[in-house]
Amino acid sequence: MDIDFDVKHGLEGVAVAISSISYIDGEKGKLVYRGFEIEDLVENSHFEETAYLIWFSSLPNENEIDFITSMLAKKRTLPKKIIEMMKSFPKNAHPMGVLRSVVSLLGMYSKKDSSTLENAINLTAKIPTIIAYWYRIKNNLPLIPPKESLKHSENFLYMMFGEIPKHSDLFDKALILHLEQGMNASTFASTVTASTLSDIYSIITTAIGTLKGPLHGGANEKVLNMFKEIKSVENVEPYIYTLISNKEKIMGFGHRIYKTYDPRAKILKHWIKDLFLKDNVEYFEIALKVEEIVIKEFKEKKIFPNVDFYSGILYNYFNIPSEFFTTIFAMARIVGWTAHAMEYRKNNRIFRPRSIYNGPKGLKYKEVKGVE
Ligand code: SDX
User: Fold this and answer.
1) How confident is the model at residue 1 (pLDDT cuts 50, 70, 90)?
2) Superfamily of chain region 16-215+321-346
3) Which Gene3D superfamilies has this protein been placed in (predicted)?
4) Taking residues 76-90, what's their average pLDDT?
5) Which one of 46, 152, 178, 255 is the catalytic residue?
6) Which single residue of 231, 295, 325, 365 has CA 20 to 30 Å from 28?
7) Rounded to whole angstroms, what are the CA distances from 23 to 171, 189, 259, 261, 304?
8) Is 270 a catalytic residue?
9) What is the homologous superfamily of the domain 219-318 according to CATH?
10) How far is the CA of 364 from the centre of ligand 1 (A)?
């Protein structure tokens, strides 16, 4: 007898775990990490300290911050064999495809008995190196090895460009904004992998593959490409109204939970506005015009800018190419992914939902094939 199930499309409104890592108030546009509002953390903290908070559920003391900072700094280098393999990759490979593949390769070189936390720190330390090395290899530039003396965020920019740009503190804060967001698609997918007790490299390969999609982390790259296509503020209206009349999704807008302005987008916009007043920040005026139209046209559906709408303008300001934007998202969200994997496993149960069958029944092979 068929059990009566109702399908929750896209799992809307379905809770799959109890978690103390983050809280989202979608109506008020609030994001809280382990009890701290995101505005408080970006104002006062930095990447290493907030990563510790997400992993260990409390802010670190001096010794603990030294521990996490030195652990992350010491584990930045990649095995030589992997660097050689990266040099053989096709130069037009997408950075998210390279990241997904190299994380899988790292799994072949990892110590089998290391704990999930050790692997989480190891991957958090190495992902920036993978991204920066791919940028250098793809552009036929010499590799710039990591510097242990630099902070996590500064070291990434140094490995990319050989120097630390002005306002690099904003890049560090942007990573804090992307650390964690509850059961988003890539965190959910990787928690499913974690629930089978698979290894951390498989868990994170799942996450990276899921984040790559344009409806999720891949949107930030699409947003900047949209700005490049629009070219000038004068072109915004015809461009956006064409998308609207074609019923196309406008990248960087909408959210399953936030039914008001995404607090992260609000913070990024504020920083970019300050920067814009001081320095030439490309595309900001175009973004403001796009936002004005979309918010007006989609008021009933409560569609507002999400984190991906403004993040690319900041990354572009740091000369990071748009095809690398989603890898920046991944280099932060590795902390949330690994925190959820460790938390879920404390009360693990394998994910195994149902599907409702609507296909044929009672078919007979010989009758269908018309044979005796
Ligand atoms: C991230 O979950 C997270 O927290 C994700 C994230 C994180 O930190 O992990 O916040 C990061 O992924 C942000 C989202 C980045 N993606 C985009 O910017 C792509 C564009 N956005 C949409 O595809 C969409 O808004 C989603 C994917 C973000 C949310 O999808 P939902 O909740 O399934 O919403 P939906 O597609 O069911 O839309 C509801 C209605 C529809 O209209 P109707 O069919 O009811 O008439 O709103 C419309 C949609 O057409 N709509 C949009 C729109 N987003 C929703 N219309 C135009 N442009 C959009 N961007």
Assistant:
1) low
2) Citrate Synthase, domain 1 (1.10.580.10)
3) Citrate Synthase, domain 1, Cytochrome P450-Terp, domain 2
4) 98
5) 255
6) 325
7) 23, 19, 15, 16, 19
8) no
9) Cytochrome P450-Terp, domain 2 (1.10.230.10)
10) 44
